[in-house]
Amino acid sequence: MTDPTVEDLLERVREGDVRLHELDDHVDAGTAATVRRRLVADESGADLDVVGEYAFDAAAADPNIDNMIGGVQVPLGVAGPVAVDGGAFDGDRYLPMATTEGALVASVNRGCSVIDAAGGATARVTKSGMTRAPVFRVADVAEAEALVEWVRDNEDRLREAAESTTSHGELLGVTPYVVGNNVYLRFRFDTKDAMGMNMVTIATGEACDVVEAETDAELVALSGNLCSDKKPAAVNAVEGRGRSVTADVEIPREVVEERLHTTPVAIAEINTRKNHVGSAKAGSLGFNAHVANAVAAMFLATGQDAAQVVEGSNAITTAEATADGDLYVSVSIASLEVGTVGGGTKLPTQAAGLDVLGVRGGGDPAGSNADALAEAIAVGALAGELSLLAALGSRHLASAHADLGR
């Protein structure tokens, strides 16, 4: 029996005999994508030919997309090279950035140039752990207290259950939170080089089975939003999620004046009045200028979960003039959720982005590549913050965009 043609399948979909997500059961993934693309183009009137021009294997993308019709291309640039003294990321490296925002890469590149002139940036991951926080129903606060005590006394049993589901993840701890007759258990895992969201969800589910079997608590939801994933949340700003990472640099006064056309005192004042006071007045969880720009661009370039830019922008930028009149600048990102294995990192163009940084795949020791990626992103964010603050200090922000036509 011959395989059905694109025209045959189009007709079967239109007649309701085959649904879009069932096409992969009848033909290879690439042909299935062609059928969907043709159908959508016919019904919407859109010209989707360019969407069908993609470089990856459609079958290999199956874990990353449903009802695939093609691929979307985002321009990819590089900033740097920039010298980094990191706990895991070291040397002179280019930073890959995928974006459609004109002038962004140029701005980060300028920051990298100034950081390099100052001898390079320092970066360190200060805390690591991916979280999942199920919510349980109990009868009353007395039962809530009993559950909290049980969890504290039986953390080893929860660890055994959770770690039985994974050969890589390690349960670091469980923190209970009580709200009336709701008990939230915030599980925190070391996921090594994986971002680990699926890993910790499966592992936490296994531990929840033990809680329900051994206590009177009833699981309401495997995620109770105290994790907290893909939402602005103070708990992540305080406790961290994924990687907590900081990058900093001290820049000589003459470099600031000659390369950035402003002064350390001016940059420090702008940072205080804009990033701290202005952000506080706005009720912001992030006290920075545009950290999300660098995070998003490097996430897209390296195959990270783009929605987690929400947590990745949870950052504080500091700037101060030193006693010697130089400029100290830092960026601390509280909840940067990154991985170098799994997810979108397997796609060829994203894998290439990781190769530019030298961090693709599992690290040795385990977790070191994801640490290095976090440090690289923090340095990119630091460069972006420095450049934007300087542009504001020299009053060149609008003219720079105008000159670049963007």
TrEMBL record:
PANTHER family: 3-HYDROXY-3-METHYLGLUTARYL-COENZYME A REDUCTASE. The lineage of its organism: Archaea, Methanobacteriati, Methanobacteriota, Stenosarchaea group, Halobacteria. GO terms for molecular function: hydroxymethylglutaryl-CoA reductase (NADPH) activity. Belongs to the HMG-CoA reductase family. It catalyses: (R)-mevalonate + 2 NADP(+) + CoA = (3S)-3-hydroxy-3-methylglutaryl-CoA + 2 NADPH + 2 H(+). Coiled coil: none annotated. This is 3-hydroxy-3-methylglutaryl coenzyme A reductase. It comes from Halorubrum cibi. Signal peptide: none annotated. It comes from the Archaea. Keywords: NADP, Oxidoreductase. Pathway: Metabolic intermediate biosynthesis; (R)-mevalonate biosynthesis; (R)-mevalonate from acetyl-CoA: step 3/3. Its EC number is 1.1.1.34. One of its GO terms (biological process) is coenzyme A metabolic process. NCBIfam families: HMG_CoA_R_NADP.
